[in-house]
Amino acid sequence: MTIDEKLARLRAHRNNIHRYRRLLSTPLTELECEFLSKRLSEEQSAIHALSATTFPFGLNLSDPISNAASGVA
User: Which DSSP category does 73 fall into?
Assistant: First the structure.
């Protein structure tokens, strides 16, 4: 898979995440909410996995406190 294909897939996942979040802010049945929540979780997992293979050199900046403690800038 080329970098262009990976970037296109990342955009598609991002767009799906935005769509599901927007739909979750509308009046829905419990079943619809459960379905969209599951799809949102799947899309987020897919985007994280694809990001890791597309940009393997990235830093984990999600926890600046422990990064600072370990000497990671």
Answer: -
Give the chain's radius of gyration (CA, Å): 16
> CA dist 43 to 10, 50, 63, Å?
10, 10, 22
Kindly report the backbone phi and psi dihedral angles of residue 28, in degrees, each rounded to the nearest multiple of 5, phi listed first.
-135, 160
* Nearest-5° Cα angle at 31, 40 to 20: 25
Average confidence (pLDDT) per 10 residues, the chain, 73 residues: 93 97 97 97 95 75 51 50
Alpha-carbon distance values, 38 to 5, 48, 63 (Å): 25, 16, 26
Q: Which pLDDT does position 61 carry in this prediction?
A: 54
Helices in the chain by DSSP H: which ranges?
A: 3-24, 30-54, 64-69
Instruction: Provide the residue type at 59 as one letter.
Output: L
